[in-house]
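Notes from the pairing session

We agreed to fold both candidates in a single pass and log them together. This is the raw record for the first candidate, unedited. Please don't reformat it; downstream parsing expects exactly this layout.

Candidate A
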Amino acid sequence: MTANKAAKAPERFVQLLKKAMEDHPDKLSLREVARRADISPAYLSYLLSGDRGVPSNEAIDRLEEVLGIAPGTLFRAAGKPNDEALEFFRKDQAASIVQSLAKLPAAELPAIRKMIERHVQKSRVTRK
């Protein structure tokens, strides 16, 4: 019988995390990043070595904040929706929107994303 191991965090996620730690202006130690992100130093060490799966949404949010990573960057690298995306998926129309998008070729998705972002920006301006 083999033990179930948690899936490893994607390499892109681990590399972004390592780079953010190396590039941080305060040159934070692993222990300091862990303390500020409210995770254990051992867990962060295992995560950086690729021996742990993707952290919780809360931990990812804190790591982005502590390391000055643009919100959503680590979530995308982890292939995981953030809380805002999860809230969207709970809306009534979300399923039909996602089903429509799933029919599109992957090459068309960046253009669709830009169109949606423009619509969201326009919507924000008109609400003010």
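Candidate B (folded immediately after A)
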Amino acid sequence: MLATVVSLRLYLHLVHVRHIYPGGYLVHQLFAGVLIQIPAAFLVAFGTRHRVLVRVALGVATGLMLDEVVYLVATKASDTDYVSRGSLVGSILLVSLTVIFLLILYALHRDEN
């Protein structure tokens, strides 16, 4: 998750914002994250032999979605907003809160396995 967000932010700040318009519709990385997250969540729910791959997929998808949420909710959603300080700080804050929450859940449930 962290590697995904860092990679996205580096790409956006170094290469600049590039949009994808399949069929004339703007596709945000949030949608890509959802398309990865839903099948991965079903694999977790029903069990799979590929547990590491599923965990990686969940981390990547979560990073894609969390990075986009602040941009869509807290800004006017322009290209300059995406690389703005507010979007970056919001993304760092949201990802940090998520990591803290995951660490707490892990600490509470690590003895159950």
